[in-house]
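User: Once you have settled down, look closely at the record that follows, taking as long as you need, and be ready to discuss the fold:
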Amino acid sequence: MKTGQIIKSISGVYRVDVDGEQFDAKPRGLFRKKQITPVVGDIVDIDFETHASGYIQHVHERKNELKRPPVSNIDILVVVMSAVEPDFSTQLLDRFLVIAHSYGLSPRIVITKKDLATDAQRAEIERLLAIYQHIGYDTQFIGKDDDVQAVFDAWESGIAVLSGQSGVGKSTLLNSYRPELALETNSISQSLNRGRHTTRHVELYPRANGYIADTPGFSALDFDHIEKYELDGYFIEISEASEYCKFRDCSHTNEPKCHVKALVESGEIADFRYQHYEQLLQEISNRKVRY
């Protein structure tokens, strides 16, 4: 019996890294009965049938987990957006950040394609990133001439997951970091202003102090697991300000003496962030109850 970490999963076969050695393993039938599905990032115990393959006997408890894409035990979640093609969107960024926080992750922000942006676009993105930095997010704005190796290696140790919509350059970043991977990349659909999916499974690749994962791009973000009363906790600055609202269950919409709205009016909370909070709150409030 050996203990290792799942680094790849395709068609029910799991590649497990055990102290630098890799083995293929399948889950025991009892996993199906217990409705347990191993995912990339899991720490597992494997029992060997041959020197190269075996069966997963036990999945260790996960410290965190993303449902879409399925990956566990994440140390760093990197939300990747592009400056152009597709155009940078604070609304989409905030939605990714909310999803990250809802799973107990502390995301950082990387904006790509700086070299393709105009001077005016770069200036506006830098202005917006300064707002996110003030809130408490680590941000990086990079182009094709930047040292991607230094960017990745500067992150904390452990599993770093790249997430973001298709076409923002996640696979391109990995190709710059590890050219031997030769990951497939595709051009942007001009009519839709978004990328076509190129990554079809989650896989962990070694980096200086851990792993990095390229994940399938998102075409939609699912907020079904988030309740409306939780949402303000996923906007850092709104969560901090809410402690000073008159009502403990303040939704920061129509209540009197709302400290959040006061800070929006004074400019201490960015108006666009508050608008995105309001929009998401409305979406969550209006969704149909599922039985």
In short: Residues 98 and 234 are 5 Å apart (CA to CA). Residues 119-135 form the longest helix (17 residues).
